[in-house]
TrEMBL record:
It comes from the Bacteria. Its main location: other. GO terms for cellular component: outer membrane-bounded periplasmic space. Coiled coil: none annotated. Belongs to the bacterial solute-binding protein 2 family. Pfam families: Peripla_BP_4. Keywords: Signal. GO terms for molecular function: carbohydrate binding. It comes from Gordonia aquimaris. It is found in: Cell envelope. Residues 60-305 form the Periplasmic binding protein domain. This is Substrate-binding domain-containing protein.
């Protein structure tokens, strides 16, 4: 069957009020499953978990990080919430190795899913698989990684932050704060989003020296030891910029081990980071709202498949950067405890 015919058949005969459904989804706070689909009937008067009222769609979400990472748990939770609201069978899979992630895309194509949401941490390795999905008539959206590459790859929409802009914004703040020597820690060398963040910090920071330290996040004891050694070796480092909340938590330990006076700032947040910002051990975090990325990636595909909508006007939909610091951490803390920030 031709792809456009297949999509037309799956499109509901009677479209729901899209805006109302999207707005009501923000009120849902429980009941997600890993596969989405129609929510349980709570026997109420329509004020329960709700349903989009459209036929079930199957959407594959394929990322470059495995489950269990606190950041990616937030992305998955957002995707599951949208799947529940939209009556979507969400098929989530992941692999940190780009060739394996590309194979997962091919598996989704072979199973004739209705849409694919994916990350593009290694765009060159993912490009052929993305093209095969597009050739099969499957709409593809990207999120989180691949800001500089999604358009040229033919991807329909992108949800995330401009990592270079986010880094530059962080670097400018460090300059304003009077920092003199910045160490930017990359936990996965070659990952385009992480490399772009540090490049942006370098652009924005004009207050003094700047250096990059590469570590391997798959070996956290080594990360701690490497950062400790660097801080001991160079006491002039007054700021450590990490690119993920778990690395920031480890940087706090390394700072203590080294007897360093450096301030810790980071990209991304999780529940464990909240008390560290509250007590000043981490000064601030750049937030890209991972829950929103997962939610919007699924919801955008649903809108496209059921109502031919696209979001962003051909440009990326930015979910960051925003700063979380002592001025707003208490407001965020409640949602972090609930697992959505």
């Amino acid at each position: 069957m031709h792809s456009t015919e297949r999509r037309r058949i799956r499109r509901p005969r009677r479209l729901v009020a899209i805006a109302a459904a999207c707005a009501s989804a923000m009120l849902i706070v429980a009941g997600c499953s890993s596969t989405g689909g129609a929510p349980d009937d709570d026997g109420g008067d329509g004020g329960g978990t709700g349903n989009a009222g459209t036929p079930e769609l199957t959407i594959a979400m394929i990322t470059h990080e495995v489950p269990g990472d606190s950041f990616w748990d937030l992305i998955r939770k957002g995707a599951e919430m949208a799947a529940q609201k939209d009556n979507v069978n969400l098929q989530y899979s992941s692999d940190p190795e780009a060739p394996n992630q590309a194979n997962l895309v091919q598996t989704a194509i072979d199973s004739k899913v209705d849409g694919i949401a994916l990350t593009l941490a290694k765009p060159d390795a993912m490009a052929p698989a993305v093209q095969r999905a597009i050739d099969a008539g499957i709409p593809v959206v990207a999120f989180n990684s691949g800001f500089d590459n999604w358009k040229e790859m033919g991807v329909q929409q992108y949800f995330g932050q401009d990592e270079t802009l986010a880094g530059r914004t962080a670097g400018e703040r460090l300059t304003q704060e009077g920092r003199k020597k910045v160490l930017c820690v990359i936990q996965e060398q070659g990952q385009v989003a992480l490399e772009s963040r540090c490049a942006g910090v370098r652009q924005g920071f004009t207050g003094g020296g700047f250096e990059i330290l590469n570590v391997n996040s798959k070996d956290m004891p080594s990360v701690e030891a490497t950062m400790t050694a660097k801080l001991q070796q160079d006491p002039s480092i007054d700021t450590v910029v990490t690119l993920g909340a778990p690395i920031a938590q480890t940087a706090v330990q390394s700072k203590g081990n080294a007897g360093s006076q450096a301030e810790i700032v980071t990209f991304d947040t999780n529940a464990a980071l909240v008390p560290l910002i509250q007590n000043g051990e981490v000064k601030w975090a750049v937030d890209q709202q991972p829950y929103v990325q997962g939610y919007e990636a699924v919801d955008a595909l649903w809108l496209n498949l059921t109502n031919a909508n696209t979001i962003g006007g051909g440009e990326a939909v930015l979910t960051g950067p925003a700063f979380i610091d002592e001025s707003n951490i208490d407001a965020v803390a409640e949602y972090a405890e609930n697992g959505t920030r």
